[in-house]
Amino acid sequence: MRLFKTTAGMRCYLGLYGHSKKIGFVPTMGALHVGHLSLIQGAKAQNDIVIVSIFVNPLQFGPAEDFDKYPRTFEQDLKLCEQSGVDAIFAPTAEELYGLGTWDKGVVNANPQLPITVSVVPPKSMTDVLCGRSRPGHFQGVATVVTKLLNIIQPTNAYFGQKDAQQVAIVRRLVADLNLPTEIMTCPTVRETSGLAYSSRNQYLNPQQKEQASVLYRGLQQAENAFRAQKRDRASLLEAVKTELALVADVQIEYVELVDPTTLMTLDKVDEAGLLAIAARVGSTRLIDNILLRNRQPIVAIDGPAGAGKSTVTRKLAQALGLLYLDTGAMYRALTWLVLQSRTSVDDEPAIAELASSAHIHLTTDKDTQNLTRVWINGQEVTHEIRSLEVTGKVSAISAQAAVRQQLVKQQQLLGKQGGIVAEGRDIGTHVFPDAEVKIFLTASVQERARRRREDLSRQGQPLVSLEQLEKDISDRDLSDSTRTIAPLRKAADAIEIQTDGLSIAEVTERIVNLYKQKLFLSQPD
What we know:
By secondary structure, this protein is α/β, with parallel strands linked by helices.
């Protein structure tokens, strides 16, 4: 693991080793805990190189806040990062990151001796709400340091925790507004056994205060139970939280709010999704927590290696559950058809990126057969055209292009916004729908997949290939799929693995249907 304290060193390292690699970035202020390590694990699973920054940013602390006493455990942080497989640490000083200049009175800075002139200003509608009310200038400081770090590292993906939901929404907005080529990944909040969300500031709490602080999550759980009982209005949800928090007198509420998770605007009720957020003090320690409330049908995400039966099982599962089969392969075929129709060369990636970014693909399930996915692109149905040999011969080359994948993943996520879908692929549960309610990793031994492939060839009347050759081909394909730069095969940490050796399609489908029903049952109110 390398340690860099200067921008020049960090950029030189990335110039030498980051070319054509996926770079995952985890920005931190140090004092690493289990929550940070989960972000690093997420970055490790989805990228070739993982960079962690450790920098206590003076810009995001108010004059009366805990900048001076904020926990600093640098040596311990280095050990944890090395044990977690981090490739490089970026730990600049404030002078290195912000340089010298004239003190800007508009910037709240805990260290008035440090002249800082740079400032990124997010929309006030997002910074002056929730925590912004009591921490003026905080999110401006966060936006400034994150923008600088993203420009220095230029990562493929940057990882943030759901606990800091307001920060995540603001960073997503600035990345969109500034057209930064980084995808913002949000990882679930990691909690202690009591339900208390991990935070660097938890170390300020004594054992009694830690126990008292766990009421924050219990309050959120009460609101979640009310939500499942169809109470979707703001008053009912906030009342559920406050009633639980009132049971612990030493917890002083700063706010309990229901807002849109993207815009942070106040919601009167939850139509699609709502962010229920809390800030409170236990003793002198300020803590935050939140949950997302989604009014949608579940999403079933199925990943696994080639030949494990994903497509057949997914189609059968969608039919059994009455959900939409999100045929992502058909979407790539539809775009390939459009490329061919427009007589664009498959090597002209910029032109294909233009087509992909402006194309609108629509999928439905045929009501008569419940099997056939009907496909439209830009208003024209191409259900049968996308199965032509010409499309089949070009779809792999086009789907391997980064810009194509980026645009189609956006469309897939938009199609899944209301839930009620079953989707399959290589990274559906880790990247496309990381918040899917049911995640399945469908697999089978190389020997079993080779046997199935040989039976398929026999049924299709094609020349038979030896089992040994098929096993070698499948092993090579597994290695290629799991190490490819774009959309590598990944098993989500919370996915349920189903080994299908010796199981029929019907048996696998039935098993997943039962898992889906168990999930729905567990989500029902008591």
